[in-house]
Each structure stands twice: as C-alpha cells, then as structure tokens.
C-alpha cells in the first residue's frame, strides 16, 4: 500500500508540470495561428511565417519544409525533428527560439561547448538547398514543435503557390 501512496504522491507532484506543458502547447499553438495569408504563405500576428493545417491537409510551406528537412537536416537532427545522439531535437528547440534566431543559426551556424561535449551546427548560408527554403524549414519545425504536424510525410498538402514557384526560381537562379 505504501508504494501506491508514493506513486499517487509523485503523480500529484508532477501534475502542475504536466499542466504547464499543456498550457505552453496551447499558448504556442495560439501564437502560431495564421492571421494573414500572402501568396500562399501564412503569417502569424507578429508577421512570422507559420503553418496552416486543416482537416489533415498542410499548407504548401509545411509540406516543403518536411521535404527540405528530410533532404538536408535529418541526418544530424533525426527523423521528424526528434533529435539524435549527434544533434538536438529541433522540434523541441523551436519551443525556445524565435524566427530571427532560427534564421541566424541556420545561416551562420553555432558552436556549443559545455558538459565535456562539443556540438557544432555548420553554417548553411551558402547552401541554396537550405538557404532558399529557410521559411519552409521553420514552418515545418514550428508545426512539429506545437504538436500539430504528425510524424512522417504529410498525407495531403495544398498546391504549390505561384509565389513559392517564383521565389524558388529567383533564389535558385532558374
């Protein structure tokens, strides 16, 4: 019986933590809510790119971000942004960094040392396969961080908007 009491006490002690995580998820998803659409790209109230997922259909940029993530980022950061022994889970990291910080880290790289371990994120500012799609990557990882994009390839997505085609051609030099 004392084990049951100890487990109950532990569960009660952890309840506020679970509630605060749930509150964070609700706050984060509310902050990420698309309030404006510009050429097929959705923006939040602060003007940052965000996702729009309705009835299992993701916007083009979330889908594109999924594709780009799995072509260049998953080797270090794991499938679906879940992390690896080599690099952190970006689905968790985006809970603590804003859009401009994300862009800076991806473009310029970052070096972390501490706890007897060194992590180096290389700069991708010269890699057009990453740089031209940083908004897409951000949108996808933001949706993963908020728990609204499931693991794996999104089964349905919006068509690629003309603005995305034009931006891609301009950035990639085509």
TrEMBL record:
Renumbered residue ranges of the record's region Disordered: 148-174
Residues making up the signal peptide according to the UniProt record: 1-25
Keywords linked to the UniProt accession: Heme, Iron, Metal-binding, Signal
All copies of domain Cytochrome c, residue ranges: 64-127
Any one GO MF annotation of this record: metal ion binding
Compositional bias (Basic and acidic residues): 155-168
Name of the protein described by the UniProt record: C-type cytochrome, methanol metabolism-related
Organism: Mesorhizobium tamadayense
């Amino acid at each position: 019986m004392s084990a049951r009491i100890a487990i109950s006490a532990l569960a009660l002690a952890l309840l506020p933590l679970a509630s605060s995580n749930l509150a964070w998820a609700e706050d984060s998803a509310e902050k990420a809510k698309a309030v404006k659409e510009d050429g097929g790209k959705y923006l939040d109230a602060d003007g940052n790119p965000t996702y729009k997922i309705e009835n299992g259909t993701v916007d083009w940029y979330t889908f594109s971000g999924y594709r780009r993530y799995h072509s260049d980022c998953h080797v270090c950061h794991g499938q679906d942004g879940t992390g690896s022994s080599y690099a952190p889970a970006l689905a968790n990291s985006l809970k603590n960094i804003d859009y401009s910080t994300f862009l800076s880290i991806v473009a310029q790289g970052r070096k972390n040392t501490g706890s007897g371990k060194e992590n180096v994120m290389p700069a991708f500012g010269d890699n057009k396969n990453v740089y031209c799609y940083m908004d897409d990557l951000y949108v996808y990882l933001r949706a993963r961080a908020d728990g609204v994009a499931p693991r794996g390839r999104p089964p349905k997505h919006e068509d690629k908007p003309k603005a995305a085609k034009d931006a891609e051609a301009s950035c990639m030099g085509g």
